[in-house]
Write a structure and sequence with these properties.
Helix content is 43%, strand content 24%. It contains nine helices and 13 strands. Strand 1 and strand 2 form a beta hairpin. It is elongated and about 75 Å long.
């Protein structure tokens, strides 16, 4: 039994499709089929049920997959441990996140200090991120929503106020703060249903006692800022404004609206030296950034 056979089997078991598996693995389909056949011969039982071109993991395959996943995860952790012995600069970090907007600057700062660290970043939904951490396919998850699972650990890295974004010509633009219920009857720009920020915003709006009239739903923060600036409606946004922005950010007096970004990892899996260093760097980076902002505000 060879390691390559197990890696191929894991992919075929996940996709249950030879052609797509061959494409993902970048191998010829006949070679992949022969590899799986040899593995089944080594194991002594068929791992898939076959019906013409269709294959489906059977009971033997599901039992074997559990052990294969555990074995490959241990081997991958072993590789990371060995890489750690060679020092931080030879490490790698696989990060998953729902938004890259808050990470671009700290990523650049970290890589300027450790240019040889290899980053791999995956954008995913909350559900996908939890599955990736559970399966050991990523080291860290950066998210504004909590993931409360028994084997997950988390550290808060960034607290961000949520503002009411209005055009600079809006009737409330000159205010220093606003209650959300003051705009209960105005058109809103929102994120698409299921989007992580939208889930949080719906909670804020529910606390304010109303369901808004959405005239547009998007999936990018930049799109919301542009549409609000154009006068299409108002929106709940993070700190996306600036002195030259046509968007006016109004602090919300009620209800309390704040996002807390976290780094999450699996506490029963090996976390590489590079990943631990990046985690600690990110906490320190945002602590310093927050302290500077508070000092400038005084």
């Amino acid at each position: 039994m060879e390691l390559l056979q197990l890696q191929y089997f894991r992919t075929v078991a996940r996709l249950e499709h030879m052609t797509r598996s061959a494409q993902e693995l970048r191998v010829a389909q006949p070679a992949l089929s022969k590899t799986i056949a040899r593995l089944e011969k080594d194991v002594g039982v068929p791992l898939f049920d076959r019906d013409g071109r269709h294959i489906r993991l059977n009971a033997f395959g599901r039992a074997f997959l559990n052990k294969v996943e555990a074995a490959l995860t241990l081997l991958e952790e072993g590789q990371r441990e060995v890489a750690d012995l060679a020092g931080l600069e030879h490490g790698s970090i696989h990060l998953t996140t729902s938004t890259l907007e808050r990470l671009s600057e700290p990523l650049s700062a970290f890589l300027s200090l450790h240019p040889n660290v290899n980053f791999r970043i995956t954008q995913a939904s909350m559900e996908e991120m939890a599955e990736l951490i559970e399966a050991g396919e990523v080291d860290l998850c950066f998210t504004p929503l909590p993931m409360e699972r028994q084997d997950f650990s988390a550290v808060s890295v960034l607290n961000e106020d949520v503002y009411l974004g209005v055009p600079r010509t809006h009737r409330l633009a000159g205010r220093t703060s606003v209650r959300l219920d003051e705009v209960a009857h105005e058109p809103f720009i929102g994120y698409k249903e299921g989007y992580h920020f939208q889930k949080m915003n719906e909670g804020f709006l529910q606390s304010a006692g109303f369901s808004p009239n959405y005239v547009c739903r998007v999936d990018e923060p930049a799109a919301i800022a542009k549409l609000v600036s154009a006068g299409l409606g108002v929106a709940l946004v993070g700190n996306c404004g600036g002195p030259d922005s046509p968007l006016r950010l109004l602090p919300i007096a009620y209800p309390a609206c704040q996002r807390r970004f976290q780094l999450i990892w699996h506490n029963k899996r090996y976390l590489s030296l590079a990943a631990r260093s990046f985690r600690d760097f990110l906490v320190d980076y945002f602590d310093r950034h927050e302290a500077t902002s508070v000092k400038q505000a005084k």
